[in-house]
Please model this.
Amino acid sequence: MNFLRILFPSPFKIHRLVEVLSIFLFLLFCGLSIYKFGKFLPEFINDSPWILLAQIVVLLLISYITADFFSGFVHFLGDSFGNENTPYIGPAFIFPFRDHHVDPKGITRHDFVETNGNNCLVSLPILLYCFFAPIEAGVFPWGRTFWIFVLIGIFFTNQIHKWAHQDNPTRFIRFMQRKRWILSPEHHQVHHTRPYDTYFCITTGWLNPILHKIGFFPTIKKFVHSLLTFVRLG
Model:
C-alpha cells in the first residue's frame, strides 16, 4: 500500500511538488534574467545615466501598477466564473478564491509554498520566454524588463494579500501598508464586504477606486454572461 502511494501520490501532493518546483524555477530565472539584462546597462549608462535612471523608475512604477491590475483581473475571474469542480483549474485555482470568502483568515495559515506557488506556476511561461528569446544587439530589452518587473510584482501579490489579513504583521509591513505602497487591511476590507463584487486588486489596490468608478468588472461580467447566453442559444 505504501509502495502504491509512492508510485501514485495524491493530486494534492503532486501539486505541492509542482508549487515547490515552480517557486525554485521562478526565483532562479528571475535572478538570471536580471543579471542577463543588467549586463546591457553599462553601454547605456555612459550616454545618459540620469535619463536611464528615470526610465527605470518609470518602468518600475508602470510595472507595479500593471501587476496590481492583473491581480484584480485574476481575482475577479476566480470569484466570478466556474467553481471548484471546474476541470483542471477548479481545485487548484478557483477553490482558494471561493474558500477565502468563507474563511478570510485561512490565508494566514498558509505556508510560503502554498501562498506563492500558484503565482509562480502561471508566471513561468512568460518568464522563460523573456529569458530565452534572442535579444537584438545594441537595443536594451525594455519590453522584457517590463514583464520581469510585472512578474516580480505578481510574485509578491499573494504574500501582500496574506499580510493584509494578518492581525500582527511586522512593523515594517504595517509601515508599508499605512503608506499604501502595498495593500492595507482597511482598503481590502471593502472587498470583504457583501456582495464581494468590487476592489479586487490586491497588490497595492491603487486601481480599485478607478475600476470601481467606471464599473469595469461588472461590465466584463455582463459581457461574458451575454456572450455565453448567445453561444448557448446559437
User: Anything to note?
Assistant: Residues 1-10 have pLDDT under 50 and may be disordered. The radius of gyration is 20 Å. Residues 59 and 133 are 20 Å apart (CA to CA).
